[in-house]
Amino acid sequence: QVQVVESGGGLVQPGGSLRLSCAVSGSIGKIMAIRWYRQAPGKEREWVATTTTDNTTNYEDSVKARFIASIDNAKRRLYLQMHSLKPEDTAVYFCDWAIYIDGTTYDYWGQGTQVTVSS
């Protein structure tokens, strides 16, 4: 059974930094991509970044100059280093592992980790 777990969230002051981690475990096939999303209170879930196994990442414009994603393929872990955090970054952050198994790509989600940016 595939399991995804996010960690690293917390309370940080504006301008601060946090590093989120997203790990996948279990019997998996080919990893196609890993995506970060976030959902703020009262808002829809929004895409933040997509990383492929060659460590190439695309970012949503508002985080492009502040967030850095990196993948450790051996550890099956993806990191999201967040700098210069703003109150509007406050949200529950989720990761989604898109995994190819027997001709179909499946999405495996974690439970999310809360990031709160406040003074």
Protein traits:
four-stranded antiparallel beta sheet, 0% helix, single chain
Provide structural commentary:
The protein has 119 residues and is mainly beta. It has no helices and 11 strands. Strands 2, 4, 5, 6, 9, 10 and 11 form a 7-stranded mixed sheet that branches. The protein has a 4-stranded antiparallel sheet with strand order 1-3-8-7, with no helix packed on it. The radius of gyration is 14 Å and the shape is elongated. The mean pLDDT is 93.
Strand content: over 45%
SS class? mainly beta
Q: Strand count, sense and closure of the main sheet? A: 7 strands, mixed
Global geometry: elongated
Mean pLDDT score:
93
Secondary structure layout plus pairing:
Layout lengths: L2 E5 L2 E3 L5 E8 L4 E10 L6 E6 L5 E3 L7 E6 L4 E6 L8 E11 L2 E6 L3 E5 L2
Parallel strand pairs: 2-11
Antiparallel strand pairs: 1-3, 3-8, 4-5, 4-9, 5-6, 7-8, 9-10, 9-11
Task: Write a concise synopsis of the structure shown.
By secondary structure, the protein is mostly beta strands.
